[in-house]
Design brief:
Layout (H helix, E strand, L loop, with lengths): L3 H9 L5 H7 L8 E8 L6 E9 L2 E5 L12 E4 L3 E6 L1 H4 L4 E6 L3 E5 L3 H18 L20
Antiparallel strand pairs: 1-2, 1-7, 2-3, 3-4, 5-6, 6-7
Pfam families: PH
InterPro entries: PH-like_dom_sf (IPR011993), PH_domain (IPR001849), PI-Interact_SigTrans_Reg (IPR051707)
Protein name: PH domain-containing protein
Length: 151
């Protein structure tokens, strides 16, 4: 399992910091989704209950659920770097588990019940689609319209 420090660098870039994230997204005001999830600690791999906030393509987590402008996130993931979000009960052998994966890392979460798990998967999945870079016209290759000598 990858370290959260490594996931942090992968998802936010090595030069990003929490202050920049805090200033760029007003996570305390009208988030898209909030709730308690279990996640593993960065260095000591025990499961800890954290308050998660999904807002503007970023998934923040905090120690407490009372969030204000002055709250300091314990971490953040930019969902546009994520490839998949899916159930992971069989991987972890834990009920209500799901995973969030980038090209290099996978992070695991445990919800309180199946309904919460499905709602988080759906919310994060929608956010991945909304905030991922769209394919531009110049990036589309139409092999059917190329001349035979170009193929």
């Amino acid at each position: 399992m990858a370290s959260l420090a490594s996931l942090w660098r992968t998802t936010t870039g090595s030069n990003s910091n929490r202050e920049e994230e805090q200033q760029s997204v007003d996570f305390w005001n009208a988030p898209e989704r909030t709730g308690w999830l279990m996640k593993q600690g960065e260095y000591i791999k025990t499961w800890r209950r954290r308050w998660f906030v999904l807002k503007k393509g970023r998934l923040f987590w905090f120690k407490e659920n009372y969030i204000t402008r002055d709250s300091k996130p314990r971490g953040v993931i930019q969902v546009n770097t994520c490839l998949t979000v899916k159930g992971a009960e069989d991987v972890l052998n834990k009920q209500f588990a799901f995973e969030l994966s980038t090209s290099r890392e996978t992070m695991y979460f445990i919800a309180d019940n199946d309904k919460e798990k499905e709602e988080w998967i759906n919310s994060i999945g929608r956010s991945i689609v909304q905030h991922s870079r769209s394919v531009t016209e110049s990036e589309v290759v139409d092999y059917d319209s190329q001349r035979p000598d170009q193929q």
